[in-house]
Design goal:
With 444 residues, the protein is mainly alpha-helical. The chain contains 18 helices and 4 strands. The chain has a 4-stranded antiparallel beta sheet. Helix 12 packs antiparallel against helix 13. It is globular, with a radius of gyration of 24 Å. It starts with a helix and ends in a 29-residue tail after the last strand.
Amino acid sequence: MARALRAPAPPHALAAFRVMFGLIMAVAAARYVAMGWVDTILVAPTYHFTYANFRWVEPLGGHLGVTLHLGVIGASALALALGVRARLAAGIFFVAFTWLELIEKAAYLNHYYLVSLLAVLLMVVRTDQVFALLPERSSNDTQNRTRWRDYWLFRGQMILVYGFASFAKINGDWLLRGEPLHTWLQAHQGIPVIGSWLVLPEVAIAMSWGGMLFDGTVWLFLLYPRTRPWAFAVALFFHLTVWALFPIGMFSFVMLASLTLFFAPDWPAKLTGKHVDIASVSSVDASYDRFRHKLGNLFLVCWLGAQALIPLRFLAYPGWVNWTEEGFRFSWRVMLIEKTGRLEYTLVNPADGRRWRIYPRHHLTPLQHKMLVTQPDMILEFAHELARRHRENHGYTPEVYAESFVSLDGRPAQRMIDPQVDLASEPLDTFAHRAWILPLKERE
């Protein structure tokens, strides 16, 4: 295996992916500004839901500052696509994009996380040996520096994304009830010709099974040359259909670009009829290359090992992860659940028992409120924020209780948060199980 990973490979497919990824991200940055999300997501909120250990991340200024931030993301993405100091451009893009991603937890999407991970890999792996305006310079530029390990690093990442997405769909709601697809498809009943059958429960169940099987097998068929064209045709249909039916932005195009890494590494050259000659590593560079190879193998094992373990952390918590959401994020549970809910807070003066009712919708943007009412960690975070505000205004810390009712995948709404627990006294930045999340009770 070590010899196979060390073997030279044409750099063309990696370079083509770099170009496609950079262009998609440049368009995404421009789209973010054009859609008005600078204001609605980042500038308008008076409070931002943040991630544990990243509470210090905040918007870099007002509208102008955030717009310039998006400009840095777009410019670095374009530099990456053009091959202008590609690894440096990937590093700048990673820092700027990930900072933007960490500002507001209510805007979390799986593909934002994937973009950050792919940016890291583009920082580590050299992808500018071809199709680059200003490539890196080294003492042995005439040699091919690309190895099969570089391809398997990207491929392994995508296999884990698709594999865990398929694994997460193996549950009764998805496969037996067709939920939440059946609920989502009701919005498309007005589509000519196909709208009338899209709303059928049987169609939702069939699509659910198709999605689970596609995620679990597409990468296998892409690796086999004889099935590769058919597999990519199915992937093209699948991702474009999802893009057309659901508001997922640039996610489908990122996935399609990533799937080209499963093609033969010289596929871009073959499109133009060129023959690719892989240069071998010279004896002069042999000792350095052995060290570089071992370091690369160590990174591959550590990176893919971590990416395999992080999505499994939900196993450390009791209860169904789709309900509790403990270990839900960063785990490739893609478009998996539909939750609705309502939430009210009660603040209590511990000295005299006086009570105040707080309606969070009056303090948050519509997006923040929509995500808050169904996610326990955000409910806890805002309880701490309410306690902080009250302490600053009145000089003492109140008890904070939550009246939370949530519906999961069409079930009747039920309590999610124990109403007897003072959330302001519960630890905020902890990865321990939160016992105040009530278990899901199935319909009797």
